[in-house]
Amino acid sequence: MYKVLTIAGSDSGGGAGIQADLKTFQERDVYGMSVITALTAQNSLGVHGIYPQSLEAISKQIDAVLSDIGADAIKTGMLFSAEIIQTTALKLKEYNVTNLVIDPVMIAKGGSTLLEKEAVESLKTDLLPLASVITPNIPEASVLLNGMEIQTIEDMEKAAMELTNYGCQGVLVKGGHMNGKDSVDVLYVDQKYYYYESKRIDTKHTHGTGCTFSACIAAELAKGKSISESVSVAKEFITSAIQHSLPLGSGIGPTNHAAYRINQSVDTHSY
Length: 271
Description:
The chain has a nine-stranded mixed sheet, sandwiched between helices. By secondary structure, it is an alpha/beta fold. The chain is globular. Strand 8 and strand 9 form a beta hairpin. The protein has one domain: 3-Layer(aba) Sandwich (UDP-N-acetylmuramoyl-L-alanine:D-glutamate ligase). The chain has nine helices and nine strands. 38% of the residues lie in helices and 21% in strands.
């Protein structure tokens, strides 16, 4: 049984954060574990409160999991503050963590800030150098590159390459915020580019897409797949989840974590 740990915030609405990660791990046949960095009061209409956990609580959770059960891969999501980032980075170094996926969560779908401004520098210097792959969307990549304008595939390529200067092995710049009929994600790893394309899906129900995408990458890395192979599986997984997203609540609904498995089962039984 492969084991994957998520270090992230809790989403009371169940569509993102720890909840999305654990659902994804279950769907990808890995054993999921969690370290909660912050509680959020959250639903389809937005984030109504953020309650960071103490540094001691975060450290103790990491110790409890990694000193006993261990992890074949780890992903980080919402870390919120510089202090939490620094604490997390120290613990990951202490346990010599490999297969680390960093989703540099900054802004919620509804616009709420999930990473304090002063924490961005800590993210760059303390955490990114430990990563196997980071998964910024275009606005996040722009912030990490001090406001770089990203409007084309060529810009995404340049951004991905420049982000590896922070020390991470690979960078996946996600193209969901671009215009056009297709959604293209660009991975730069080992001095090579990989492109992952899907038809753009006309839906507003995309809550938790970044969490789910990065969690699936971590699950595949835990199984021994390469970064490029892991992203390929995760692209199919998240595309299916968005295509069959759930219109729950009055605002932005979540993706459907079971869609990929259900569709595979239907395809298998159609022959």
